[in-house]
Amino acid sequence: MGRGLAKARVRVHDAMSGGAELIWREAPDRETLAREIAARVAGALGSRLREAPRASLAVSGGATPALFFARLSERDLDWARVDVTLVDDRWVPTSSPRSNEAMARARLLQGGAAKAAFFALTTGDATPQQGRAAVEASLARLAWPLDVVVLGMGGDGHTASFFPGGDRLAQALDRASPHRVEAMTAPGAGEPRITLTAPALLGARLTLLHIEGPAKRETLARAQAPGDIAQMPIRLFLRQAERLEIYWTPEGG
User: Fold this and answer.
1) Is the peptide bond before 226 cis (omega within 30 degrees of 0)?
2) Are 89 and 193 in contact (CB under 8 A)?
3) What is the Cα–Cα distance from 118 to 134, expressed in whole angstroms?
4) 79, 81, 57, 67: which is closest to 196 by C-alpha?
5) Cβ distance 155 to 212 under 8 Å?
6) CA 228, CA 235: separation in Å to the nearest integer?
7) Which of 42, 83, 128, 234 could share a disulfide with 56, CB 3.0–4.6 Å?
8) Residues 54, 60, 64, CA angle at the centre, nearest 5°?
9) Is the pTM of this model over 0.85?
């Protein structure tokens, strides 16, 4: 991408929805969007590293963030002082193509970014319920609150592993929960999951939502209409985050 296009790529719109300030950032294509998100995340992490010994980043899995991961790994940061974890993961081995951890390691933790400390959300236990306490203990070593969270969103309005109909959805959404992680099974989730909880995510200093394609924009519009958070859990962040930066391109989806 040429420098001129990079300067012209983003249209910004500010709005208020419920208690959350929504910042809309739109790019013409996936490459431009990936570079824009990478610049925003790297800038926030770099700013934090000038103030604190370490900075923390939680990212989402799936196919959407792969290009963003690659562009972020190219950014010049003191990666040895960055802690990286996942917003959620499927309870599968890293040998599985469904593993968010495997994708993050292959696409993000490369080059200089390989020096980052990675905190996995899975263990060798048979179920996420059995492994949750160990994951919680591991995550306690991060510097909290998280500095940057990058969310995704499914066509059903789920984010992280906050799935409509999830067996532990109420507990995961509970802002008074003492836990940073929660196990989750749901009809639309496929495998059992483990996810950061609402208090762990809503406490982040910077929260981004990365979505691509017309269908996801339509899903987001539906989520902004009145309705129960449990029916479209992305509403938690649309309504209760102090500020949510939404990054979208018409490509993809």
Assistant:
1) no
2) yes
3) 15
4) 57
5) no
6) 8
7) 83
8) 130
9) yes
